[in-house]
């Protein structure tokens, strides 16, 4: 068999899927093959005569000029990667294979579009970062800024809003809102809310761009006019269904989000929804472990933690703290006479009223059936504890539940640091004993 020699005809290079470029020593395009239009968005005749560096993404310009210097110094570079700005402003990642031709005084390079590969790598990295952030972030509010940073590795998003459905009050909460503008008007904030509500209600993504909003219903295009020119909202869908919505937005002159970005963010937002759900579950479990289920008050464990912290501060700063040990008198008879459910309601009401007698820095914990402990923190003076005890007694004097006027008397024992004990155990025991003495006194007096 004879092998036919083949001489490429002129223009053959335009058949290549990769782009071939030739630039002079100043970095000006002398030749660009047909594939350039697909890769860079510019026709070859638009590229010739322009400076290569002007098309490079700003963050890659320094590296690119350095690589060009090395190539012109004789180093062939078969695997240099950088990012270019396409004619429509979007980014394209290129793998270059380039060399210097000394006789022609030109650089010859082949550009292979690796945007898809880069995107897949970035998504993989983002998913890993999201699952890592779930472990490192202390709580949901710490997780959101992490998520914002991770999204920014995938697409420009100066603004991010996260809306979560709150089953307790059957409405959307907005626990994270970085609007991306210098300041935000009340109308713009309301528009963000309305758009997120729409996305979470429909369960469908919503892509708003500078143009095309006239096709939207009136109220939606009015809201769209208030937010950033590029706005992409996605439902947060977990195993439970739609748990809220996420919206990314961009104010800058960068290109608007594309359908491809929407697809990418739909995929990523599913992972974000799972991450949020895991964090919510974590904090629910933590809350359950630290709080009493009936009254919602901190439990004994939390009380011990706070008491030890307060004691450490008090020792350092040479100041006092007080404990009030509260036990309801004859609470059993309320259960017996009116039923356990009424007893529960009474306990909840007592908890609410005790809380109402305290300052923000103080703690009230439920430590037993009808037993509560108050820790008076902050600048606690002699006599403060007595005044608070009086207030609590007065508050609990008449409680109305289901048309019943219940009379409940709390016995309250007080312990003051450092007079009545050096540590948590001694102070609690002292306050408990004082409470029993009060109870006995009350009984003996009746
Ligand atoms: N409704 C209701 N009752 C509870 C709960 N936890 C404990 N109790 C009841 O609260 C009562 C507390 O008992 P005690 O403190 O010994 O009884 P008391 O009648 O208050 O007696 P004194 O304190 O001596 O006046 C018991 O009858 C428990 O069954 C609860 O969560 N809900």
From TrEMBL:
Listed EC numbers:
2.7.7.65
Residue stretches making up the PAS domain:
13-75
State the UniProt keywords alphabetically.
Answer: Nucleotidyltransferase, Transferase
GO MF terms on file?
diguanylate cyclase activity
Q: In terms of domain of life, where is this protein from?
A: Bacteria
Q: Where is the GGDEF domain?
A: 319-446
Q: Which PROSITE patterns match?
A: GGDEF (PS50887), PAS (PS50112)
Q: Which Pfam families match?
A: GAF_2, GGDEF, PAS_4
Name the chain's protein. Diguanylate cyclase
Taxonomically, what lineage is the organism? Bacteria, Pseudomonadati, Pseudomonadota, Betaproteobacteria, Burkholderiales
């Amino acid at each position: 068999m004879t092998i036919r020699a083949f001489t490429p005809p002129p223009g053959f290079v335009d058949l290549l899927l990769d782009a071939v470029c030739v630039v002079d020593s100043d970095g000006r395009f002398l030749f660009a093959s047909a594939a350039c239009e697909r890769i860079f968005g510019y026709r070859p005749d638009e590229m010739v005569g322009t400076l290569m560096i002007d098309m490079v993404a700003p963050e890659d310009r320094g590296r690119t000029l350095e690589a060009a210097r090395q190539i012109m110094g004789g180093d062939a570079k078969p695997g240099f990667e950088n990012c270019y700005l396409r004619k429509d402003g979007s980014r394209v990642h290129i793998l270059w294979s380039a060399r210097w031709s000394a006789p022609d005084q030109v650089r010859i390079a082949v550009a292979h579009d690796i945007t898809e590969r880069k995107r897949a790598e970035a998504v993989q990295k983002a998913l890993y970062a999201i699952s890592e952030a779930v472990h490192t972030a202390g709580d949901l509010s710490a997780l959101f800024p992490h998520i914002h940073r991770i999204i920014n590795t995938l697409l420009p998003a100066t603004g991010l809003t996260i809306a979560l459905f709150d089953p307790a009050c059957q409405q959307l909460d907005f626990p994270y809102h970085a609007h991306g503008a210098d300041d935000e008007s009340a109308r713009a904030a309301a528009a963000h809310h309305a758009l997120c509500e729409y996305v979470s209600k429909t369960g469908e993504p919503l892509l708003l761009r500078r143009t095309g909003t006239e096709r939207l219903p009136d109220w939606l295009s009015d809201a769209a006019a208030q937010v950033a020119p590029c706005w992409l909202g996605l439902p947060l869908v977990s195993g439970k269904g739609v748990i809220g919505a996420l919206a990314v937005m961009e104010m800058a002159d960068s290109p608007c989000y594309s359908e491809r970005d929407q697809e990418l963010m739909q995929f990523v937002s599913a992972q974000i929804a799972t991450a949020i759900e895991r964090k919510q579950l974590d904090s629910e479990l933590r809350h359950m472990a630290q709080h009493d289920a009936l009254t919602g008050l901190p439990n004994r464990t939390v009380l011990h933690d706070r008491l030890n912290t307060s004691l450490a501060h008090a020792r350092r700063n040479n100041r006092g703290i007080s404990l009030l040990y509260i036990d309801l008198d004859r609470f059993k008879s309320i259960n017996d006479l009116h039923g356990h459910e009424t007893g529960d309601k009474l306990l909840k009401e007592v908890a609410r009223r005790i809380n109402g007698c305290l300052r923000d820095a103080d703690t009230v914990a439920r430590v037993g059936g009808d037993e509560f402990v108050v820790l008076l923190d902050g600048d606690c003076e002699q006599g403060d504890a007595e005044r608070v005890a009086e207030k609590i007694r007065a508050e609990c004097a008449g409680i109305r539940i289901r048309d019943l006027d219940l009379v409940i008397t709390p016995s309250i024992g007080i312990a003051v640091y450092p007079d009545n004990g050096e540590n948590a155990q001694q102070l609690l025991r002292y306050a408990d004993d004082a409470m029993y003495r009060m109870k006995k006194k009350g009984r003996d007096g009746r």
